[in-house]
């Protein structure tokens, strides 16, 4: 195993897109940021130095961080922010994972421009469990705002109004042409007869996305750095924070093919509905040859999303067994939704809040991991409820009850190595939306999913405990539920939140604390000496 060292300098960079120029926060002047390459088992050292006037932290989304929660990155959860002029060394080992992940800023909305790919190759000499591709290509999907993104979120927070939507979707940092502003869009160059491994990442803040290439099916082989059974499809559905590796065979002779990216939102409120235009271009294609076009699914094509998600299965081979917990120590049922709270300074006298089991999470001012490690009292309370306060029935008229939210920095405590079943129930109250939920510190198995109310008596009988897909982020369907299982084998403080940044901002988040185990390798390592203070 090697040590992979990276220098990440946070700097301001002037960038022009959609015919307007603004200064954005980047790593080393790059957008998207630099790719981290490593092999399974490697140690990764990233020295982050903050040269801007914003506080910064970076999260290595999906990296398990076994016993190294100090390097996980969410601001005020596992660390205090890295202040202007300060630096911090993120130091972790890539254990038991290989595939594609992403890294992104985890404070305010800075991840709009601070994000990039993590490529974890198998250990030397270990082949992929699928035919070796000729080439590998990273495809990072995102959004672009012409306005300053920090101003967008600040305005939303102050007024209580929904934030402005983005102005375009982007592929590897490039928008397509929009009316009045020509732009070639990103082009993926391919050679006829070759096979490509596409490492597709959704780095968007607020949009779940469809991805499709005209005239080509692709075969999904891995999601969230866990291998899957090969799944051939013409459309990928990918939520923010999720990653998908897919094989593309360049089986045409020449030509230019549209690569389209469009948003999914099953109840369309306000969304950036500009389809990103990128192209697949075969070597030898004559200049100006017209592209082969395609259309992505309708914006509210819920069946496409559920078919895609339901067909994903973990590889579950001898070499890569799916170790699904078969027994459950903690059975949790979390309603996830959006409510309304009074707000004196807000335009309408009220503001939207996100709530899990009617609790809207309040960000602490001391990092929770430090509070946990040093037993600092008064920072969080141990009383996050396992169930919602009112029995929930989304078909019934219980809106008023479900709109009542409480606040708090509340955590749910798990004993080391206990097993957890968590049913995430979409409530459809106020903003009926699918919620991409992300759990830090673990991979989980998606053992069940459905529409309507979760039926605690009958639905578990249908759970897939054999080869459920393993991931770190799951889209919980509107008016539906997803059941996940994981083993609490990672001591520390772990964030669970909606990966739509607007919902995280509104409080749709909570925290698990996993206590140390008794064994020699079962406790959180001590904090690094350069850990920032709050
Ligand atoms: Cu990718 Cu807590 O986030």
UniProtKB/TrEMBL annotation:
CDD domains given in the database record: CuRO_1_LCC_plant, CuRO_2_LCC_plant, CuRO_3_LCC_plant
Q: Report the enzyme's class at the first EC level.
A: oxidoreductase
Locate the Plastocyanin-like domain: which residues?
A: 13-124, 136-284, 384-517
Q: Which InterPro entries does the protein's record reference? A: Cu-oxidase-like_N, Cu-oxidase_2nd, Cu-oxidase_C, Cu-oxidase_fam, Cu_oxidase_CS, Cu_oxidase_Cu_BS, Cupredoxin, CuRO_1_LCC
Q: Which reaction does it catalyse?
A: 4 hydroquinone + O2 = 4 benzosemiquinone + 2 H2O
- Family per similarity comment: Belongs to the multicopper oxidase family.
What's the protein name?
Answer: Laccase
Gene that specifies this protein: LOC105136220
């Amino acid at each position: 195993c090697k040590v992979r060292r990276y220098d990440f300098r946070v700097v301001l960079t002037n960038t022009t897109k959609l015919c307007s120029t603004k200064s954005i926060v980047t790593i080393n002047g790059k957008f998207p940021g630099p790719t981290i390459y490593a092999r399974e088992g490697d140690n990764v050292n990233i020295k982050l130095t903050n040269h801007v006037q914003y506080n910064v932290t970076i999260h290595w989304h999906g990296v398990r961080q076994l016993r190294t929660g100090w390097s996980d990155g969410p601001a005020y959860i596992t660390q205090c922010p890295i202040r202007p002029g300060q630096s911090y060394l993120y130091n972790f080992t890539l254990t038991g994972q290989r595939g594609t992940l992403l890294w992104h800023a985890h404070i305010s909305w800075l991840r709009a421009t601070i994000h990039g790919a993590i490529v974890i190759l198998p250990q030397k000499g270990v082949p992929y469990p699928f035919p070796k591709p000729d080439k590998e290509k990273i495809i990072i999907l995102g959004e672009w705002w012409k306005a300053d993104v920090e101003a967008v979120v600040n305005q939303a927070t102050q007024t209580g109004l929904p934030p402005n939507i983005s102005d375009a979707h982007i592929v590897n940092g490039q928008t397509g042409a929009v009316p009045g502003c020509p732009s070639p869009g990103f082009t993926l160059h391919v050679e006829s007869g070759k096979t490509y491994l596409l490492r597709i990442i959704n780095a968007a803040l607020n949009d779940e996305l469809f991805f499709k290439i005209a005239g080509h099916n692709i075969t999904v082989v891995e999601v969230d750095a866990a291998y899957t059974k090969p799944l051939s499809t013409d459309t990928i559905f990918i939520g923010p924070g999720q990653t998908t590796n897919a094989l593309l065979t360049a089986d045409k002779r020449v030509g230019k093919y549209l690569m389209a990216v469009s948003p999914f939102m099953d109840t369309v409120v306000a969304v950036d509905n500009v389809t990103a235009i990128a192209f697949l271009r075969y070597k030898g294609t004559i200049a100006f040859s017209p592209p082969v076009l395609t259309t992505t699914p309708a914006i509210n094509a819920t069946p496409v999303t559920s078919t895609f998600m339901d067909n994903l299965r973990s590889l579950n081979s001898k070499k890569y067994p799916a170790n699904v917990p078969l027994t459950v120590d903690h059975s949790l049922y979390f309603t996830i939704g959006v409510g309304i709270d009074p707000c004196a300074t807000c335009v309408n006298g009220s503001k939207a809040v996100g709530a899990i089991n009617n609790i809207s999470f309040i960000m602490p001012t001391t990092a929770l991991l430090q509070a946990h490690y040093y037993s600092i009292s008064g920072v969080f309370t141990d009383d996050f409820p396992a169930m919602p306060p009112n029995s929930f029935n989304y078909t019934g008229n219980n809106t008023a009850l479900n709109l009542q939210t409480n606040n708090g920095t509340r955590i749910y405590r798990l004993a080391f190595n206990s097993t957890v079943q968590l049913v995430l129930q979409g409530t459809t109250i106020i903003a009926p939306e699918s919620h991409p939920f992300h759990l830090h510190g673990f991979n989980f198995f998606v053992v069940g999913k459905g529409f309507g109310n979760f039926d605690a008596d009958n639905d578990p009988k249908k759970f897939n405990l054999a080869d459920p897909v393993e991931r770190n982020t799951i889209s919980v369907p509107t008016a539906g539920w997803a059941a996940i299982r994981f083993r609490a084998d990672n001591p520390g403080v772990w964030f669970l939140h909606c990966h739509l940044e607007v919902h995280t901002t509104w409080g749709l988040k909570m925290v698990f604390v996993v206590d140390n185990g008794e064994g020699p390798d079962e406790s959180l390592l001590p904090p690094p000496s350069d850990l920032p203070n709050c």
